[in-house]
Amino acid sequence: MFRNLFFAAVLAALCAGLITSAIQYLRVTPLIVAAESYEGTAPAEHAHEHADGEAAVPHSHDPAQWAPQDGIERTGYTILANLLMAAGFALIIGAVSLLFNLPISWATGLLWGLGGFAAFSLAPAFGLPPGLPGMPVADTVARQLWWGLAALCTGGAFVLAAKVQAPWVLAAAIALVALPHVVGAPQPPEAGTAVPAGLAASFVSASLFNAAVFWVVLGLVFGRLHDHFTRQSAGAHS
Amino acid sequence: MNTNTTANTATGLQSLSISQRLIAGALALMLGLTLLVGTGFAGDYRLHNGAHDTRHAMGFPCH
């Protein structure tokens, strides 16, 4: 039984990870690379940003630090990271399915995918819009904590609404979805950036589109394969 | 037999005992979170730089 769920998760992650890699390669990463050319071109703001809490965080573009070479190596690491991230997300929704006894099937796969997109992309992006390198940001750990809070509250609201059908549950779920936004995401310092506004806007829509496709594929393939493996093992036992 | 197969498919998860479900669920959660934190959140510069474009593309908080 667990093997069915595990294999379905891993194969769904493989599909979703490869598809997001293709979308990123074609539409998202070029925007990141374009933004990197503006990084450091506004030295006053950059220094200010670091003084604002980023000083302790090692900067990724320090020449002394390892980073993949642009080109095949960088693309390769991105694909690897996408696959591992996809496996992580697939195992997390598989775990939620097991812990709360909410089956992932062909019939519910789309809901799982849309729920994952809302919890792990849309809700965090409402407070922390997907940003390009070189844009002013608040303290990284504070943003990571808020991101986790937004994902947990939104996902928790969906599980609650799916498990318990009562009017008060709907109200509680809505309150839970709203909570992280009432708390408020850490705001970036008032600093200018050399990254063009059009580039940043394109990036937000491209990354949300990318995440939506990733999650819908993950949910649908996960559900379809879980059905398939379950039917197969049921056939083998009878 | 057909009816049986359909019933098994529909109740694939429900037929497990609660403790089995919770243990498997907790293990999957731990493994999944480890992968997610490793790719999306870890501060180590090698992990950060290797997964840099993934983090930006998926809207994880990055530098």
Rg of chain B: 19 Å
**Poorly predicted runs of 5 or more residues of chain A:** 43-59
Taking pLDDT < 50 over at least 5 consecutive residues as the criterion, the unreliable ranges of chain B are: 1-10
Radius of gyration of CA atoms of chain A, rounded to a whole number:
20 Å
- SSE string of chain A: HHHHHHH
Biggest interface reads: A-B, 71 and 48 residues
> How far apart are the first and last residues' alpha carbons of chain B, in Å?
57 Å
Global geometry of chain A? globular
Q: Overall mean pLDDT score of chain B?
A: 83
Order of helices and strands of chain B: HHHH
Number of strands of chain A: 0
Number of helices of chain A: 7
Helix content of chain A: over 70%
The number of distinct helices of chain B, counting runs of at least 4 residues, comes to 4
Estimated share of beta-strand residues of chain A: under 5%
SS elements, strand count of chain B: 0
Distance between the termini of chain A: 15 Å
Organism (chain A): Devosia litorisediminis
Pfam family, one (chain A): CbtA
Protein name (chain A): CbtA family protein
Keywords (chain A): Membrane, Transmembrane, Transmembrane helix
Molecular structure report:
The complex is a heterodimer of chains A (238) and B (63). Chain A has 238 residues and is mainly α. Chain A has one domain (2-39, 72-237). Chain A contains seven helices and no strands. Chain A is globular and about 65 Å long. The model of chain A is unreliable at 43-59 (pLDDT under 50). Chain B has one domain. Chain B has four helices and no strands. Chain B has helices at 2-10, 18-40, 45-50, 52-57. The longest helix of chain B is centred in the middle third of the chain and has 23 residues, at 18-40. Chain B is elongated, with a radius of gyration of 19 Å. Mean pLDDT of chain B is 83; it is low at 1-10. The interface between A and B is large, with 71 and 48 residues. Chain B: The chain crosses the membrane at residues 22-42. Chain B: This is CbtB-domain containing protein. Chain B: Keywords: Membrane, Transmembrane, Transmembrane helix. Chain B: It holds the Pfam family CbtB.
